[in-house]
Amino acid sequence: MRFADFRNKIKAGVQALKERFSPPPRNQEDNPEEAELKQEFQQRYSDFRALLAANTEALDIMQELENALRGEHPFGMAFIRSRSTALLTSVYKIIRHLNRIAPDTYPELIEVYDDIEEELSTILEKKKHPDLRQELIASLQDIQAAHADYVGSKMANLGELKTALGLQAPNGFVITTAGHAAFFEHNDLQVEINELLQTAEYDFDRQDQTEEGQKRSAYWSELTSRIQSMIRHADIPKDLLHALQKNFSAHFGEGGEAKVAVRSSALGEDVDNTSFAGQYLSVLNVDKDSLPQAYKDVLASKYALQAMNYRYYRGIRDASVLMAVGCMEMIDAAQSGVVYTQSPTSPGDTALIVTAVHGLPKGVVDGSQPADMFILERDEGFTLRSQDIAHKKEKLVLDPGTGVTEAFVQTDAQDVPCLSREQLRTLGAECLKIEAHFGTAQDIEWAFDTQGRLVFLQTRPLSRREAPGEDLQLSTDPLVSGGLSASPGVGYGTVVQVEEDDDLMSFPENGILVSSKSLPKWASVLARAGGGDRRARERCRTSGQYSPGVRSPGYFRTGEGHGDAARGEGYHGGRGQMPHI
Description:
581 residues, 19% strand, alpha+beta, disordered C terminus, Dna Ligase, domain 1, D-amino Acid Aminotransferase, Chain A, domain 1, 15 helices, single chain
């Protein structure tokens, strides 16, 4: 049966089902059986809506491919691969929600899907570079963007900066996806993990703030911790362990005294519209003896609760995510930060947005430290449009003993720009070279080391979302104003303060996320956030240090409300009081 026919038949019965399960008069109470039936209907109706949304996404992607086939715009294999992956993701969502609507009715669909996925992968493999396919480890200086399927897009892009543009990037090597596969196969990990996930007592996504929902949250927290522990305590195959030691010595010297950063580079981690920024682990200041354990820790972070949450709500299958891991020299940064080569939320605004701190960039990337912000015009001299200078009392620095530690910023440097105009011009010019090379706006992590050398730590496509089309006139005073919003947009729903990992599992559908820190891991609940409007949720998927929700003081409490994120304001009241956009 075609999905369009299926959708029409379902729609024809929706009204009758709504009437059957409509709320009783206020003076009546549901009996337990009716309440359970109603809850089941609500879940299936939610799955039905999600199925229709996934079907629309699939049709849109197929239309993109047809337009490209007609020659409406130039394209390459990167476009074909990214659109094929997105299409497979949408179809998998359709199958998943269809099987939840009608359990055990279409068991053969997932088998057909797997066959199609394997055949499509075989076709796409024919056009790719085979030189790294079986290598356990590859040097960063040999890596290009075309090697993304073997080293992940993060490391592939970094290698491209070195090999194609000749820009400064850290020295190092990458443990490829073949290394990941060898490690898992050596310990039979994938089989055991699949059994744990397939026999789980609770559905992963049915989390709420009821007593039963709390049990589900605790169950999945324990299960993901168990999976991570399995990986951390597994043995690394001898050939992979030997390759690790050999490459560490070759890249950083025989003495073993060098310290490296061990960073995730999973397949699909930094591709357009699917940014896993902050979901996986990075380990800093790792020596040769500690490298094997750090590698396993990064692999284990694939099964961190927030990463699994993110994959589930994006429709990304566990088997589709192989983890490459980069091992790179630590950069002793004097200043560092992030550059957006265009505005992520204002279409047509091509100014560069530079966010910077003293010391290491971790505080910018995870939103844990106040940072200077500079807006640079895209002209020859990179005219400074505006700047917002933060009070920077502390910075993160390298420490031989503890790895990374906090240090005080000198008093006379705490309230002045951490970058000079010359540094800003240099940074702007190099970042525009990167944007021109990749052909799209970029989200770039960088550092000036203590010798004044500009080093690029990573680059990825910048997620850009359309801003609201009209200025809203709200008749009520805001409960909270100021702070930093993820992106423009209006949403309504229950305001929920999120500060701990456990808060993520009980985050409600269509909730408004409020936090005192803009941490990337909050992105794992964006599919449930955004105030009930799919457009608002999409606008919130901004990469980099822009966090989901509104960054506001920690006293903002749970309650019904809606917000204008462009203004950084929250208002009391439900949907009926929210103006339409």
